[in-house]
Amino acid sequence: MSITLLCLVKGNTTANVFAIDIDSGKLVSHLKKVIKAEKQNDFAGLDADKLRLWKVSIPAKQPSAQLTAVSKISVNIKDELGGVELSPVDDISEHFDNGSNKPIKKNLHIIVEPPIERKEVHCSAKYGRFSKKSFQWTVTREMVTLYSLKKRVYEYFTFPDGTEPEHLVISRVISGMSRRISKPKSNLSSPNQEKSDEAVIESKTIHISTDEDLASTIWTSAPQVDLEMVVDTSQQPFSWYTYSRMKVLFGLQVDDYNYLPTECLVRNGDISDELLESVISEILRNHTASPPITGDTNEATRRVFISSIIYAVVSTFGGEVKIIPEYEVSGSYGKGPFDWVIKIGDIIICVTEAKRNDISHGIGQSSAQAHAFMQRNRNKRTYTDADLYDEEMFCIISTGMLMKQNLKRFKMKCVNILTPLIFLTPGVEWIMTKVILRGNEYDENNSGIVEVRVCSPKPDPILLMKSSLTKEDIREPVRNLLVQIKGLLEEQRDSVVNGKRHKTWKSNKSNTVKQLI
């Protein structure tokens, strides 16, 4: 007696369902041959006896978890779909007949599982401008997921601290058409020389965003596949975070940093007169050798004046404290380098140059950087410890060059104090903040509750606008800044025992990190 069975190959969608008409008196092995003949392109080069057939009963037109699962190549047919494997020596009538085992109309009856197929994927991955790696990835259909590829790529490159495989972004490189461009004659060439043509191979990248995108690239008819990739990380650069963006990200309640909660700093370090004179002389020497200090002064010039301060302070610790430039770090929301890190035992103090004209932008950037670093520390601890302790990081932000100042008199005329004039004065402005990542409180993204405080007293600005700068112009602001930073580093050094932070605070906060910007 003939029956009709609705069949589907594992990993396909219901759009690929096909019907098989067969005599129920035949064996299951006969059914395998009929299915192979029906799907001869899919099973080319494959013997029918290698197919595994599973009996199921899944409504094909009613949305369900089983119907969704059947389209996944990694689905467990027995456990997730309630499938029963059919023995090739069974009669089909033992499982399907016109009685109690009659196939239900519009239900899937047979899931066809091909044998495990392996594919050699020859991968070539590029990360950054110069780092390129090649490796072979031998996979089955079940193994081909975007996350598994990210994990494999993660093994071959050194990414910023805090980067996890899920942060990677992978794009496939597709070689384009060759085109020829005309090359003009050289000025030194003869008058009769013609223009030459040069072949250029253009290529483009396509983002791989889903498992299906990756599978369609790998599972071709070829026994091996070449996969050329470009790798990046998904987080925004830290410089993207203005104060307003950081405020939204961490759920802060105030629109202006001037109204953030305050934190009082009381410790100052001792600075010798010799060191002070040395720093002042270096600043004056750099000022003399630099172009006029104006609003468009570039980042490299501004960095010179900031480094004069931090290197001078660190030099007073006799080698206990080290500075490492261009330190990469990455977190859930940001990535990129700190300009410098200061290392005291296991304590990291991060130093970053902020935006030159907007101190609030620097606060946004430094807070995102602090969160990334503290998040990395939390991930390194045990679950219990991570819930017990808050993380803290102090940030010193410098605009580098321009400071806002208010005027109440302009050209000897009084101005309404409710509408003061604001102008920009070239100089080096500093502000210090304290960023706290709560140990036992979490936001909706499970990344921790963040609090930002503005520290007082505020360091004095160092004015650099004069074309002819003298020692007396900068002596006091330089002295005050040096002693504040020295006090901060001394506090951190005193908390280190045997190379690690000693928990001395009443709140038992651990792994505190201080950041200078």
From TrEMBL:
Keywords: Secreted. Residues 3-113 form the Crinkler effector protein N-terminal domain. GO terms for cellular component: extracellular region; host cell. Pfam families: Crinkler. It is found in: Host cell; Secreted. It comes from the Eukaryota. The keyword Secreted applies. This is Crinkler effector protein N-terminal domain-containing protein.
